[in-house]
Amino acid sequence: MGSKRLDWIDIAKGIAITLVIVGHTVPNPSPLRHAIFSFHMPVFFILAGYTFRPKPWRELLSGSVSRLLVPYVVLALAWQVPTFLMSSAPLTSGTLVAGLKTLVFASGVDVPGLGVTAVGMTWFLAALFTSRLLFNVLVRLFDGRDVRVVWQGVICAAIAFCGLSVSRFMGVYLPLDLDLSCYIALLMWIGYTARQRGLEPSASKPLLFIGAGVAWLVLAALSGLELSSRRVDGFLVATVAALAGSYCVCWVSMALEKLKDVPVLGAFERGLVFCGQASLAIFAIHAVDWFVPWQTMPLLMTLPASWLFASIVRCACDIGLAYVIKKA
């Protein structure tokens, strides 16, 4: 993949990580939050598929453990340990077992029926780890059996639907988000196939961008998607809405890439490239910034549209801290 392509991918990741912060700051429920959640996490998974290369198992495991599983454990503990200390609860064997269950399940929400508490935002890292392993199996199977692309899509969609059915309809959540990873593998396949077939967005085709934008607006309003809680209301409609929204993000990213030499817009483009390159660091900072009462700060609450100012301040803090750490 050339450097130019990496630039637009970084911009898309920069947009997506910014929307993650905003989506966690705006009122819940709200139309804006609904709109953001309809595509902001799928962008990451689709791009993960776009940049995916099948690897030998030892190489895949080594890279995925160091880049995803280890940060997951560190960030999960960085959230869970202070939370436990502030609760003033006694440290018992039962508490340790409950904490271990939380780490093993890696669920973004409480696991019904098992008494397992949510691990918080870090579910994303565990789910991506499991999804990479699952998707590597699928790609090697497809390549080894010479499965046609249409049947690949059917198989991935069937696996995704079954995985969601296990958690949503049967109430069974699997360790390391394996049930959710079945759906994520479908999103990764979409990105992977787009690269294989040369179907990535082109900034020279504005009509496709407009069509995707209209499709996203309509379909997102008719469905609901929140991956941390396994909420995919209207499987087909929600998935197409996520794809359309992700297409728009990638199209805008390619358009911004072409403006990198324009004085003001070029600085904005470089800022988004940084956010994309540092998206994991920004995510890590954001994963532990929940101790700050962004939505209820007295200074911000006195302002009109306080959620807007809270989002701006939160983005500035998370991104700014990531920048300082990188430059240190």
UniProtKB/TrEMBL annotation:
InterPro entries, per database record: Acyl_transf_3_dom (IPR002656), Nod_factor_acetyltransferase (IPR052734)
GO molecular function: acyltransferase activity, transferring groups other than amino-acyl groups
Domain called Acyltransferase: residue spans: 7-300
Transmembrane segments: 32-52, 72-91, 111-135, 147-166, 172-194, 206-223, 235-256, 268-287, 307-325
Record key words, sorted: Acyltransferase, Membrane, Transferase, Transmembrane, Transmembrane helix
Name assigned to this protein: Acyltransferase family protein
Classification of source organism: Bacteria, Bacillati, Actinomycetota, Coriobacteriia, Coriobacteriales
